[in-house]
Design brief:
Length: 472
């Protein structure tokens, strides 16, 4: 019996171990082990490129593979730190995971509701998606699971997933204020819930659906604002039935019967639009550029940045549009363009939530004012992204105004650059400001380029190969 195997003193021990690990990591991220990098004005980026696989789909393909009976084969998996930590977590729950000589990943799953108790703490590094989705799995299994992460992840709010899990009967022991490190003691028996997601968050939605999938009974989820739908698509792709309707208020209602059996699948992960965003904006702002980014996921819950860039006057064309694995994909052909400032409405935020740092860089080179509204969720990303972007703009002479939930950038000056940007363990801050330097008269430096490995290993080499100039 797995039930109640972990008593209070064992949880205390796990917590102390987790806290020590996080403290060590906190202390380790100081100037002595950061990797500063500068980017320099470049004479146009040219060529065809592939960016790595989609991060959201990569996490989920490992998770669904571990819950399905049989062997799931994944090609194009994003092999970044975030995703590898999810792979390790699923292995710790008993899934068999390996990579073959052709680069495909094989996951042999255990079935829904059948994960095994991990024998060690699970380290999610920098990954909010990994941690929050797996908390849903852990909550539905009657054993204790301890979650740790880096200094960034340990400062991010987890109450948004822990509160609905508590309603299902889950117990939580956390360091403080529902932050990592924390231990989840799965509900026994777990009670499925009806839950209205209070913020626009695919992670919260996915956590609850994954918990519901692994417990008996019907889970109902009400999503007032549509967010990325990869969990829903994958549930169906792995053979589960998921009810979906829109109510009179325009909210999406999802109903999921727990303990449905999933069957193993072949998954092809398309290129990540959130990673494609960096070379796309680099090409738009760097004179002489002409790039084609291949096989990019064009799911409409993810393409808000491309819509916005076209409104700004970008010469951005989707070519070779097609369907692959139930998703729309295409090649993005982009050339240097004269951009103008626009207002980005708040209701577009969910479809471009990770793209505001790089949009702010595009806005820095656009004539006039770009107003970005509805940005409250940026405060709780890998860093306080609104503050981190504003500080980076300030360091590089870009006029802007930071509000509690908005950002206005006045672009088009010929004085941009010359600053050093604090990345705060945030990969997208690092990549965004390195892109800024490629088109700026003065170099832009980021304090730690190593954080890019969270989502985009090979970023600097890829851009260098296209004509980008960097200096360590
Ligand atoms: C993600 C959801 C988004 C996004 C994150 C990935 C996902 O977070 O910012 O990078 O894969 O579900 P929120 O759910 O917090 O909006």
């Amino acid at each position: 019996m797995l039930k109640n195997r972990v008593n209070a003193s064992a949880i205390g021990f796990l917590q102390t171990a987790a806290r020590d690990a996080a403290d060590r990591r906190d202390m380790a991220h100081d100037a002595s082990n950061m990797t500063p990098l500068s980017s320099l004005f470049s004479n146009g980026l040219k060529g065809r490129l592939q960016v790595p696989g989609d991060k959201s789909i990569s996490h989920r393909s490992l998770i669904f593979g571990a819950l399905a009976k049989g062997e799931t084969v994944i090609s194009g998996l994003l092999e970044s730190e975030d995703v590898i930590n999810t792979a390790k977590a699923m292995a710790a729950f008993g899934a068999n995971i390996h990579k073959d000589d052709d680069g495909n990943w094989h996951v042999t799953g255990l079935g829904t509701g059948a994960l095994l108790e991990p024998t060690d703490v699970l380290d999610f590094g920098n990954s909010g998606t990994g941690a929050r989705l797996v908390m849903g799995l852990a909550g539905a299994h009657a054993f204790a699971t301890t979650f740790i992460g880096d200094a960034s992840l340990s400062s991010r709010p987890m109450a948004r997933v822990l509160n609905p899990l508590r309603e299902m009967g889950v117990e939580v022991l956390s360091r403080s204020k529902d932050r990592l490190p924390l231990t989840i003691k799965g509900a026994d028996p777990a009670t499925p819930i009806t839950y209205r997601v209070p913020m626009a968050s695919a992670q919260v939605k996915s956590c609850i659906l994954l918990a519901g999938l692994n417990m008996a009974g019907t889970t109902t989820l009400i999503e007032p604002i549509k967010t990325r739908d990869h969990t829903e698509k994958m549930l169906r792709g792995f053979g589960a039935e998921l009810g979906e309707e829109i109510n009179e208020a325009g909210e999406t209602i999802l109903t999921l019967q727990g303990l449905q059996e999933l069957s193993a699948q072949t998954v092809t992960v398309p290129a990540d639009p959130s990673s494609a965003a960096f070379p796309v904006v680099a090409a738009l702002i760097t004179p002489g550029s002409d790039l084609i980014v291949e096989n990019v996921l064009l799911n409409e819950t993810r393409t808000g940045l491309f819509t916005t860039l076209v409104e700004m006057g970008a010469d951005l064309v989707i070519e070779n549009e097609r369907e692959s694995g139930g998703e729309r994909i295409g090649d993005i052909h982009v050339r240097h363009s004269a951009l103008k400032g626009v207002t980005v409405p708040a209701d577009r935020a969910p479809s471009m939530i990770d793209e505001y740092p790089i949009l702010s860089v595009a806005a820095s080179f656009a004539v006039g004012e770009t107003r970005m509204l509805g940005l409250e969720e940026l405060r709780v990303k890998e860093s306080d992204r609104l503050a981190a972007v504003a500080a980076g703009l300030k360091a590089n002479q870009v006029p802007h105004e930071e509000g509690e939930d908005y950002l206005m950038v006045t672009g088009g000056s010929n004085q941009i650059g010359g600053g050093t940007v604090s990345t705060h363990l945030d990969h997208r801050i690092a990549m965004s400001f390195l892109v800024m330097g490629l088109a700026s008269p003065k170099a832009v430096t980021v304090d730690d380029a190593a954080v890019i490995n969270t989502s985009f290993p090979g970023f600097v080499d890829l851009l260098t190969g296209l004509g980008g100039r960097f200096e360590a």
